[in-house]
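User: Sequence recovery, please. Input:
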């Protein structure tokens, strides 16, 4: 049998434009500003793919030093011992703090990595105009945006430790250079998710 494929009809094809700020739906593609909030209208976010790609590449470059360099240095009785993220996880496991170790593993390594991979997959889908399950890819985007709020958990833990463990020459915790790189990765991935326009996934989809 011959397979008939037709392009999905989007709101943009029907002449509708949605305001990015207030969500107002306008049936006028020639109108340059939103009648509700007066912000500038764009059928799609300008340079969405280019901006997201630049942010993802920057985050990938910083992800390596964030996991290689020490994220904190613990000083006890004058002896300083640096810890990377993975080294801290292993230390927590050796101290029988497995739930905390799993929490740090998920928040510090898996979540940023999965966000980077997920956004890269979405960019490839848009760039090469893949015929995919657009609903599934949209859910992936929503999950990325949802888990982004938990990405700073490791930085919060270090901040609490630095504030609480400060006993002069007896015991002290100092944030390392990897903490800055890790925080930058989190911020960049949050901006990348914000600049990506998920409607681009639907623009070239067809249905049978």
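Assistant: Recovered sequence (208 residues):
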């Amino acid at each position: 049998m011959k397979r008939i494929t037709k392009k999905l009809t989007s709101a943009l094809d029907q002449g509708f434009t949605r305001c990015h700020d207030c969500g107002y739906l306008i049936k006028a593609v020639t109108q340059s500003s939103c009648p509700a909030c007066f912000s500038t209208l764009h059928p799609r976010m300008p340079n969405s793919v280019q901006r997201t790609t630049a942010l993802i590449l920057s985050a990938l470059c910083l992800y390596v030093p964030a996991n290689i360099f020490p994220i904190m240095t613990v000083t006890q009785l004058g002896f300083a011992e640096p810890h990377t993220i993975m080294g801290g996880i292993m230390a927590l496991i050796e101290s029988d703090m497995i739930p905390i170790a799993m929490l740090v593993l998920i928040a510090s390594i898996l979540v940023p990595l999965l966000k980077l991979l997920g956004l890269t997959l979405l960019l490839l889908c848009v760039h090469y105009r893949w015929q995919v399950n657009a609903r599934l890819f949209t859910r992936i985007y929503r999950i990325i945006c949802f888990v982004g709020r938990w990405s700073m958990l490791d930085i919060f833990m270090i901040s609490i430790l630095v504030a609480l463990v400060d006993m002069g020459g007896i015991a002290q915790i100092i944030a390392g250079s990897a903490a800055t790189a890790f925080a930058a990765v989190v911020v960049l991935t949050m901006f990348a998710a914000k600049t990506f326009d998920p409607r681009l996934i639907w623009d070239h989809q067809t249905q049978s």
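The longest strand covers residues 72-76.
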